[in-house]
Design a protein that fits this description.
Oligomer: single chain
Strand content: over 45%
Number of strands: 14
CATH class of the largest domain: Mainly Beta
Distance between the termini: 45 Å
Number of domains: 2
Length: 206
């Protein structure tokens, strides 16, 4: 038995067939790998897959981002068919080899996106299929919390879209001072809490 899944791709509807079977109990996980988000909210992320089963198809929804495209990784470089709408990603073999079992997380696809929320997350509809036609039980609970710009304190009054060394130097220059424009947490004094806030938000901010 199969159930059909319809995906709007541009102006056309793509229909694929996914198995309607009991999920196999397997040690499988879908996680976020390396990611990059620019100050204007555009980004990309490597998605990682580990499983003691082979994998020949996937479908998952995302939250906190609008998908632009799928590419690269084991599936992209292996010639799999890859499709996406704004919230749903689909990939499957068309005669290509299934992805083999792996005990270590492997980059299986890269997603390009525009940020729409404060996290990168997977939504409820996550389906991965093992040969011949078995739905895999997957842990997809991994979430990336994106930085905000509260810690982007240098240059004064504007920031530069990145929390980094300049922020640390600004804090050290005003260490212990009250009324500093570089007071990250707003408690009136530059100290350890401000430094910890900068370190936690390290990297590009939105």
């Amino acid at each position: 038995m199969f159930e059909s899944a319809r995906l709007m791709y541009g102006t056309a509807a793509l229909t694929i067939f996914l198995p309607s079977l009991t999920a196999a109990h397997a040690a499988c996980s879908l996680t976020w790998g390396e990611y990059e988000v620019t100050p204007d909210g555009n980004g990309s992320a490597d998605l990682m897959w580990s499983c003691n089963e082979s994998m020949l198809a996937f479908q998952f929804d995302v939250s906190g981002l609008e998908l632009i495209g799928l590419r690269d990784g084991w599936c992209g470089e292996g010639g799999w068919s890859l499709y996406n709408s704004e919230t749903t990603a689909i990939g499957f073999t068309m005669g290509q080899a299934p992805m083999p079992p792996t005990t270590e997380p492997v980059h299986f696809v890269t997603v390009d996106f525009v940020v729409t929320g404060e996290t990168l997350a997977f939504a409820d509809d996550v389906i991965f299929v093992a040969p011949p036609d078995v739905v895999i039980d997957v842990d997809w609970s991994d979430v990336v919390v994106l930085n905000d710009c509260d810690a982007d304190i240098y240059p004064e009054g504007a920031g530069d879209g990145v929390v980094g060394v300049d922020e640390v130097l600004a804090l050290l220059g005003d260490w212990g001072a009250s009324g500093s424009p570089f007071d990250v947490n707003g408690d009136g004094m530059i100290g350890v809490d401000d430094l910890l806030a900068v370190l936690e938000a390290w990297g590009p901010c939105l």
